């Protein structure tokens, strides 16, 4: 019983090709290029000479060619060493085609018997038509149809190599009852590396009858290099078995070579023996070379057109950025989204530069994108690409939103980048047999795949790779960094100018307040003081005391206003800094309670502090004290007799939030919109007719900004006001305060 093991052809490349036998449809003579004396020959040559028993070694080649043909051939060799000499010659009353050429220090003579029934085909019109083909698809479609008509093979296919050297039949012409191979894929082991190298040098290989018996050379010491370009070289055993498994008796294979790379093959199949003459094979070589050139020209033309289009897209991108609003964060990339996508030949893109971010709704989740950018390894051009995010990063498919390919262009700072994404291309691929079982070893013989039935495999989690040309266009987007830096610098300058303008406006408003809101109280003091100074004798002792009390009260209010103005000035000039310290929150609230309890009692207001835990926090104690003073002072000012003011706090997500709620006169929506504006003319009087300079809430806003806090105010006329003030803190609950929850 034969031993069977799985085997990949590529492990045995060398053994398949190195053979010094030839196919019997050809006759070969090898001679020294200087002496023209025969050094070796195939044994079937004996059938072409008059005396088959005569030893041909060291004889001049004219014993085979004849004097006249030898002379013409010798003159030809003196003129050229690159082209092959072609002629017809009569040997033993039979007509032969003859080719002679020089290879190193040897001359090779190759003969084939002429088949008088074979007809020539029109090469000139074929080539003219090839020049008119607008695309590779139409070029190949026309070629296979013309070739099968001209040469009468059962099937002609175009076989294209993939990046991994697997192949696909991309075009086909066949006779009616012949099985189709169109769109079948074949593993790379079907045409192993050594065979591909051979196709680069031997551009046309013919097997007229797979059942042939190979011819030996007369001299066993033949160097394989001497016949490496011969079309008659014996084929490897696995190739014979491969053809038999396909049911093929004869084949002809031509190499499509573009830019010195094996692009694909033109393959002719016949189910019965079939031979093509040397002359017609020369025409086929010319046609396939023309097909190769046309593929190259069309591909280059398409690449140049695509490159020009991408350059135009790049121009649009750069023009937009150069004319973009200097408001750095307000770029609207939707206007040039298509240009970006064309530059990256992508389905979607994402851009991040410092705080600016452009992200499409259909994009992968932001966290996934950031993970990809963080973990990928960029190359020397600051680019990373993969056509399978799933395979490269093991990210669950459901998180990829249908995308498979990613190309990341990093700017100088790795945290800034442009990401291009390509959609997954799910395809059901038809393989010719199971690609996972390319070959087996039976006893001492290698056998290729025996099954060529269609084997369907689903190709998923992948897309097309980015080409070098596409990546070069993407790399040009690196120039955007210069524009971003300029926009950023200009934006900072604009923001600085706007800040200076704002400070100048606030300075003017500041002095307006000084001149307007302080003028009346000062006028009152001056008028009353002057009256008492000039007419003191007309005032009774009781009236004098009352006037002095009035002067003192107005002076205290002026002092309070001036302190507020001074404090506001220090805030706007940046003279007051936030200073985080660790303190007991309950101790601060007790202090504030003691400050305002007398005033609340005097106005007969229910003053309630609601807190329990003794909390140790880290924050700016003085600024929190100041802002709470402002809110509580306003609450007392606008809350009528027998009203309620309730102060409490709560903790959530490492933020401390204070609530100051009153049952005072409240505010309408128009007032709410203006209370934080320095130039607001709309001011509410307190329940006792008090009018302030309007700086309290403005100062609270500045303090909130300084401590990264937030203020929210909810109010309705005659229903009271609730102020929320929250700040980020670090805290520790240390115990309970039994004196809390105090009410007056």
What topology emerges from the helices and strands here?
Blueprint: E1 4-6, H1 13-17, E2 27-32, E3 38-41, H2 62-65, H3 67-79, E4 85-91, E5 94-103, E6 106-113, H4 123-130, H5 136-151, E7 155-161, E8 167-174, E9 184-186, H6 193-201, E10 204-207, H7 237-246, E11 250-258, E12 261-270, H8 278-323, H9 337-343, E13 348-353, E14 356-359, H10 366-375, E15 383-386, H11 389-393, E16 403-410, E17 417-423, E18 427-432, E19 439-442, E20 445-448, E21 454-459, H12 468-475, H13 480-517, H14 519-534, H15 541-572, E22 581-584, H16 585-602, E23 606-610, E24 613-619, H17 621-637, E25 644-652, E26 655-662, H18 669-674, H19 696-706, E27 710-716, E28 720-728, E29 730-736
Parallel strand pairs: 9-18, 23-25
Antiparallel strand pairs: 1-19, 2-3, 2-6, 4-5, 5-6, 7-8, 7-12, 8-9, 10-11, 11-12, 13-14, 13-17, 15-16, 16-17, 18-21, 19-20, 22-24, 24-29, 25-26, 26-28, 27-28
Helix pairs in contact: 4-8, 5-8, 8-9, 14-15, 15-19, 16-17, 17-19
Structural category? alpha+beta
Radius of gyration using CA atoms only: 47 Å
Helix content: 25-40%
Q: Find the count of extended strands (DSSP E, 2+ residues).
A: 29
User: Uncertain segments of ≥5 residues (pLDDT<50)?
Assistant: 1-16, 736-744
If you had to describe this structure to a student in words, what would you say it looks like?
- This protein is of the alpha+beta class and 744 residues long.
- It has three domains: 9-301, GAF domain (Beta-Lactamase, 2-Layer Sandwich), CATH 3.30.450.40; 308-426 and 461-476, 2-Layer Sandwich (Beta-Lactamase); 577-744, Histidine kinase-like ATPase, C-terminal domain (Heat Shock Protein 90), CATH 3.30.565.10.
- The strands form six sheets. The protein has an eight-stranded mixed sheet. Strands 3-2-6-5-4 form a five-stranded antiparallel sheet, with helices on one face.
- A hairpin with a 2-residue loop joins strand 11 and strand 12.
- The longest helix has 46 residues, at 278-323.
- It is rod-shaped, with a radius of gyration of 47 Å.
- Mean pLDDT is 83; it is low at 1-16 and 736-744.
């Amino acid at each position: 019983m034969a031993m069977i093991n799985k085997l990949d052809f590529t492990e045995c490349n060398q053994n398949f090709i190195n053979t010094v036998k030839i196919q019997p449809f050809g006759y070969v003579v090898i001679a020294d290029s200087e002496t023209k004396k025969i050094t070796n020959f195939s044994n079937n040559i004996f059938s072409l000479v008059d005396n088959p028993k005569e030893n041909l070694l060291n004889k001049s080649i004219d014993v085979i060619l004849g004097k006249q043909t030898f002379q013409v051939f010798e003159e030809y060799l003196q003129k050229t060493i690159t082209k092959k000499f072609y002629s017809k010659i009569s040997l033993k009353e039979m007509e032969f085609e003859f080719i002679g050429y020089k290879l190193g220090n040897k001359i090779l003579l190759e003969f084939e018997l002429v088949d008088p029934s074979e007809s020539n085909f029109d090469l000139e019109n074929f080539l003219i038509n090839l020049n008119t083909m607008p695309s590779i698809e139409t070029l190949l479609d026309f070629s296979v149809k013309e070739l099968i008509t001209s040469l009468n093979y059962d099937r002609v296919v175009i076989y294209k190599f993939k990046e991994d050297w697997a192949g696909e039949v991309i075009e086909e012409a066949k006779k009616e009852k012949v099985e189709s191979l169109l769109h079948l894929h074949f593993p790379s082991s079907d045409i192993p590396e050594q065979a591909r190298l051979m196709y680069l040098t031997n551009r046309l290989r013919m097997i007229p009858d797979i059942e042939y018996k190979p011819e030996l050379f007369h001299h066993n010491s033949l160097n394989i290099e001497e016949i490496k370009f011969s079309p008659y070289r014996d084929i490897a055993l696995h190739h014979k078995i491969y053809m038999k498994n396909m049911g093929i008796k004869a084949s002809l294979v031509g190499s499509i070579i573009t830019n010195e790379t094996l692009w694909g093959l033109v393959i002719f199949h016949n189910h019965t023996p079939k031979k093509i003459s040397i002359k017609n094979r020369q025409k086929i070589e010319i046609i396939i070379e023309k097909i190769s050139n046309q593929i190259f020209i069309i591909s280059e033309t398409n690449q140049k057109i695509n490159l020009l289009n991408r350059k135009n897209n790049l121009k649009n991108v750069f023009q937009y950025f150069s004319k973009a609003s200097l408001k750095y964060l307000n770029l609207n990339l939707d206007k040039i989204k298509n240009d970006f996508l064309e530059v990256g030949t992508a389905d979607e893109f994402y851009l991040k530069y410092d705080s600016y971010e452009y992200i499409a709704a259909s994009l992968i989740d932001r966290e996934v994108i950031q993970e990809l950018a963080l973990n990928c390894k960029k190359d020397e051009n600051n680019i990373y690409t993969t056509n399978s995010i799933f395979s490269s990063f093991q990210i669950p498919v459901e998180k990829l939103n249908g995308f498979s390919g990613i190309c990341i262009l990093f700017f100088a700072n790795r945290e800034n980048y442009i990401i291009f994404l390509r959609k997954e291309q799910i395809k059901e691929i038809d393989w010719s047999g199971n690609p996972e079982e390319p070959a087996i070893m039976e006893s001492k013989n290698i056998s290729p795949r025996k099954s060529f039935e269609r084997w369907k495999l689903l190709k998923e989690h992948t897309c097309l790779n980015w080409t070098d040309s596409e990546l070069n266009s993407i790399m040009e987007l690196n120039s955007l960094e210069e524009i971003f830096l300029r926009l950023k610098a200009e934006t900072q300058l604009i923001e600085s100018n706007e800040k200076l303008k704002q400070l100048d406006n606030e300075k003017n408003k500041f002095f307006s307040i000084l001149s307007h809101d302080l003028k009346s109280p000062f006028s009152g003091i001056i008028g009353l003081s002057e009256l008492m100074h000039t007419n003191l004798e007309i005032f009774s002792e009781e009236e004098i005391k009352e006037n002095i009390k009035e002067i003192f009260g107005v002076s205290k209010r002026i002092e309070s206003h001036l302190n507020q103005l001074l404090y506001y000035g220090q805030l706007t000039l940046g003279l007051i800094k936030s200073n985080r310290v660790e303190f007991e929150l309950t101790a601060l609230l007790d202090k504030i309670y003691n400050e305002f309890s007398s005033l609340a009692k005097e106005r007969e207001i229910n003053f309630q502090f609601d807190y329990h835990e003794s909390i140790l926090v880290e924050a700016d104690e003085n600024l929190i004290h100041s802002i709470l003073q402002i809110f509580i002072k306003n609450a007392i000012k606008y809350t009528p007799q027998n009203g309620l003011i309730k102060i409490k706090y709560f903790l959530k997500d490492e933020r401390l939030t204070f609530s100051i709620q009153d049952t005072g006169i409240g505010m309408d929506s128009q007032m709410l919109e203006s209370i934080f504006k320095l130039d607001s003319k709309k001011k509410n009087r307190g329940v006792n007719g008090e009018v302030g300079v309007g700086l309290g809430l403005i100062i609270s806003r500045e303090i909130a900004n300084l401590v990264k806090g937030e203020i929210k105010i909810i109010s309705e006329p005659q229903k009271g006001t609730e102020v929320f003030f929250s700040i980020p803190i670090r805290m520790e609950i240390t115990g309970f305060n039994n004196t809390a929850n105090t009410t007056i």
